[in-house]
Amino acid sequence: MADTSALRALFEVIRDERRTHANTAERVGNALLAILPYLGEYIRKDQPDSTAYLLTLLAGAVIGESNNIRLNPDGSIVCSAIRVNGSAIFDELVFNHQNVLEGDTYFTDRAIIDSVEWLDVNVARLTLRKMFEADEFTFHAGDIVKWSKNDLLTKGTFNTGYGRVESVSGQTMTITMYDGEDCPGGVNYPPFAAAHMARHGHVSDPSRQYSFYVSATNGAFMFLQGVDKPILEDTEAGSNISAWIGLPPDSYLTRDLINRGVINPNQPYVYSKGIITEDLIKVDYLGNPQYQSRDCGTWIAQRQYMHGYDSLARGYFTDHVWWMGCLWKAAVALPTVGREPRLNNTDWVCVIGVHNVNVDIISSEGDWFLAGSTFTTTLEASVFHAEQEWTQAQIGIANIRWERIWDHGTGDAAWNVQHGAGRDGLNLNINSAVDIPGEWVAGSKVAFKCIVTMPDGESYSSDYSIII
Question: How many structural domains comprise the chain?
């Protein structure tokens, strides 16, 4: 700001004048004339003006009649839009609503082409744009670069080109374009100014033959490996597509899986060589959890098994145990501790093992008796499911009945009525005078059958013959 002390002194003299007939008008005129040189040093409010000096607005500023542009004292700027013709550098960038990226977004070596100079047929020198003064480019000789032009307004497509880097020097790069037959679609489009360029792979260096990108056109996160030419390998022998998340890409693997109905091309999936995870919870299309089978070895009476969510293992499990020659799975959330798996225990279901029940009968006095003799014997039936023997109490006497079978059938029906379910149990006492047909002679045979109905509703039986 200019020094106004001389003006102040002049004005004070005029103000304090007390002499009679002093030439006050002349003094005031001289003071006004002295102000004129200072008027150009202040910003005008009544017409366009400018200043060559730093302007400090301590309380901020509002620009425009709409009040949409505000410069705040805290250093923040509020406005409706920002247009940058060059590059914009942010120490921190925060999106308050959403961030939208079009096309494919690559996470690899990148550059923007500023200009193209053709040195020979299919050979060009590219000048790369620096995004800021210290910007450096990380392309190497042998890199396969890819550029793309959005042509949505005319054809609804992207024009994509490929080149091999021959050399890189500062902001310039020399490339050789690939032949069209060596590129996807059989056409290779030339580079152009303002095109965005990314490393696609490398002709020989495995450490530079990978790229990761997000494809808005394919709807997937893609990871490529072993890329040594523009066209990706995609055969039964192998593929450059080593991992993806999202909609299945059009590849040898996915085509086969789609044709066999294994995957849905309209549903997202995750594909990779391996997955390392702490928690893996599967659900069906309705969101219901899918239980994992967990083999817990031999059944232990003191252990609590489960069919549900395990908070320690953090997953949904169905416990399986081995017991008495069979594999059992838990059928309820918490099977009763100490109650062994068996057919009449609804806490468990047999999934592997002997599903048939075996009924064996033995006679306490053998199976041969002399004709004309009087004898007694006890037929003892035993019931086994795999290695488990069922007792009469477990089966229930009402589920056990006996039948007599004689070749001539005389009296069998009456005998069967007397020994129906709920009468004899597993032990049948035979008395020759009562239970053997009276017409039997030497060489006769009579059989007795034990029929057991198990808790699952199935009936099992075995017969035993007494020979005279």
Answer: 4
